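Please describe the entry underneath.
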Amino acid sequence: MKKVDPRFEKFVKKKSPAAIKEAFKQEKRKYKKERAEFFEQKKKEEREKSAAPIIKREAVSIKKDEQMPLNKYIAHCGICSRRDAVEIIKDGQVKVNNEIITEPGHKILSTDHVTVKGKKINVSKNLVYILLNKPKDYITTTDDPQKRKTVLDLIKNATTERVYPVGRLDRNTSGVLLLTNDGELAQKLTHPSNQVKKIYAVTLDKALAMSDFEKILKGVVLEDGPAPVDALSYSDVKDKRQLGIEIHSGKNRIVRRIFESLGYDVKNLDRVMFGGLTKKNIERGRYRFLAEKEIRNIKFFGKGKK
């Protein structure tokens, strides 16, 4: 600002306190705007750095005269995991050469025309691996007849490939969720024989008694069989409602049902680890792509070690 010659100061119109205050507010708003733009640009640069690595699928096409089980083919097409494909087929949603097939093991040829829910499917060429920090109130599915919010709504701008969730987190459970179109990996991570490690942070409605703590470690028996637990601990010695639990079972609502069987209500359930993957540096409701090293690690994990 140009300074006024001291000899002419008395002729200069001075700003009122209100004008000075308004000018200060404008400067403050300008600073906040520039600061917000700076950090937004930084976030944009970080997002670009963590763009999806292009992973090319090794040829998974069916050779001439070779046959492949229908559920395996659907998984390779990136529609869902092999296990979920079984349900889709049994529900009569799959046609081969315009004929509804309800047998998951039905063998198909390279020349067959396969549709799921009326749409022709083909083997995905590019593999995508997305790690989501799922919030509550989202359904872990690719399609909900009731039109509720699904986890795919959270990643709709991430990729043009058709991806699906690996395993399930119920509507009121938050935390680590992997989405991919790699049917082979999804099958590996969800198959019980591979004993993939899952760790949850649990908040109960009341303190967990030591006698019940011991029962859970020994293994409670639920309506669908035993529920083995690999590890259990109090997260806060002063608040015995807070616990950490490690399991490898993939049964539906297994953690909630373990505590409910002993008279406890799970108020909050958050998955903090799945197969060695954590939600570190991922805000709730946000996602990131797996790095190539992470993809290699999760593909070649040792049984029971992840």
Observations:
- The radius of gyration is 27 Å.
- The first strand starts at residue 55 and ends at 56.
- The helical segments are 17-49, 70-76, 82-90, 151-154, 183-190, 210-218, 254-260, 292-299.
- Residues 272 and 278 are 6 Å apart (CA to CA).
